[in-house]
């Protein structure tokens, strides 16, 4: 081999080594710069992050949950907008019902499972996080925890602000803080735009409204429906005669007549097969006790989808907008 050929080979070798070194350094820098990714885990037994549920219990996570079970329709809705559906194993009983849920049939069909009613059935799915509510069945919750399943307990919010907190806390538990912030920001933006429309409404122009369920007037003072109505510029008739500790349906016909509401809101959801929506509307409209009530005299008896009344997720802003549009349609022309 000549000296020239040997020199060329050495130069080529140096070049390859330099390229390899550069690529290695770039890879190291990339890893350092990116930090933790959504799929990052830590060695078993170590904690990647912690989250506090709405019962004040601290949960430790070794990885971001990817096998999620939701046991209520409000958390179905929140989780669906926080994470890819591939991370959700099952939905709750009422998910996809257009009169109570904001999820579409297509979204629910994509998951294909819902309404698990036993801890054994839930455990068989091998979830890494079950999301329950503080009004759910404690036996299932405690049973799952005794089997080593991580359970996050969400609240049943009573205000718009509590709905926002519910989203943000659940977002953190799911490793989706950024998406949670986006959802809450969107809620506040929409409420701000609605407030601009409602600012044209004088105080003496606000309407008194009584909402009915199939068992009577509803919407107690201090409840979520009361807050929804207030933010929609509506005076909640039920709150005028109820204290916050009373049940939902305690208004008598005499009290309703005395309040003389401008608007009646009638349910659309049939909780039982025997529920007759049209028949109930006619019953209220033709009740002799209400013949002189403004809502009947002016024919301002409106149907409202029950998903705007029994909401417990970020869709509370949809509920606020819907109530405002039904009661004050002139503001939205």
List keywords for this structure.
single chain; 333 residues; 12 helices; 11 strands
Mean pLDDT: 86
Low-pLDDT regions: 1-39, 243-248
User: What is the tally of beta strands?
Assistant: 11
Q: Outline the biggest β-sheet.
A: 5 strands, mixed
- Report how far the terminal alpha carbons are from each other: 91 Å
- Tell me what portion of residues adopts beta-strand conformation: 5-15%
Helical fraction: 40-55%
Q: What's the helix-strand series?
A: HEEEHEHHEHEHHEEHEHEHHEH
Structural class by SSE content: alpha/beta
Indicate the radius of gyration in whole angstroms.
28 Å
**What global shape is seen?**
elongated
Give me the number of helical elements: 12
What does it look like?
With 333 residues, the chain is an alpha/beta fold. The chain has helices at residues 3-34, 73-82, 105-111, 119-123, 138-146, 160-173, 177-198, 224-231, 253-259, 277-285, 294-297, 316-327; strands spanning 49-52, 58-61, 68-70, 88-90, 129-133, 151-154, 208-213, 216-218, 235-236, 263-267, 301-304. The strands form 3 sheets. Strands 7, 8, 9, 10 and 11 form a 5-stranded mixed beta sheet that branches. A 4-stranded parallel beta sheet has the order 4-3-5-6, sandwiched between helices. Strands 1-2 form a two-stranded antiparallel ribbon. The chain is elongated and about 70 Å long. It starts with a helix and ends in a 6-residue tail after the last helix.
Briefly, what is this?
The protein is 42% helix and 13% strand.
Give me the secondary-structure topology.
Layout (H helix, E strand, L loop, with lengths): L2 H32 L14 E4 L5 E4 L6 E3 L2 H10 L5 E3 L14 H7 L7 H5 L5 E5 L4 H9 L4 E4 L5 H14 L3 H22 L9 E6 L2 E3 L5 H8 L3 E2 L16 H7 L3 E5 L9 H9 L8 H4 L3 E4 L11 H12 L6
Helix pairs in contact: 6-7, 7-12
């Amino acid at each position: 081999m000549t000296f020239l050929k040997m020199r060329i080979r050495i130069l080529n070798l140096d070049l390859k080594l330099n390229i390899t070194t550069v690529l290695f350094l770039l890879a190291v820098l990339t890893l350092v710069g990116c930090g933790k990714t959504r799929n990052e885990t830590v060695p078993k037994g170590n904690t990647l992050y912690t989250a506090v549920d709405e019962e004040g219990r601290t949960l430790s996570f070794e990885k971001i949950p990817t096998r999620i079970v939701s046991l209520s329709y409000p958390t179905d809705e929140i989780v669906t907008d926080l994470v890819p559906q591939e991370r959700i194993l099952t939905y709750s009983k009422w998910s996809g019902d257009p009169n109570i849920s904001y999820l579409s049939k297509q979204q629910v069909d994509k998951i294909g499972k819902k309404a698990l009613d036993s801890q054994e059935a839930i455990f068989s799915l091998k979830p890494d996080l079950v999301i329950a509510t503080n009004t759910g069945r404690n036996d299932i919750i405690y049973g799952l925890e005794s089997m080593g399943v991580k359970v996050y307990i969400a609240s049943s919010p009573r205000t718009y602000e509590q709905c926002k907190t519910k989203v943000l806390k659940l977002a953190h538990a799911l490793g989706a803080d950024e998406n949670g912030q986006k959802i809450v920001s969107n809620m506040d933006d929409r409420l701000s735009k609605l407030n601009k429309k409602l600012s044209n409404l004088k105080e003496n122009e606000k309407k008194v409204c009584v909402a009915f369920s199939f068992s009577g007037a509803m919407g107690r003072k201090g409840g979520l429906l009361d807050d929804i109505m207030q933010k929609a510029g509506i005076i909640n008739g039920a709150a005028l005669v109820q204290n916050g500790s009373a049940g939902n349906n305690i208004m008598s016909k005499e009290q309703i007549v005395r309040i003389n509401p401008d608007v009646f809101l009638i349910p659309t959801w049939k909780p039982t097969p025997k529920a007759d929506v049209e028949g109930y509307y006619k019953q209220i409209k033709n009740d002799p006790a209400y013949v002189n009530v403004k809502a009947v005299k002016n024919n301002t008896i409106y149907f409202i989808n029950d998903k705007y009344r029994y909401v417990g997720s970020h869709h509370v802003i949809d509920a606020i907008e819907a109530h405002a549009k039904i009661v004050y349609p002139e503001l939205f022309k």
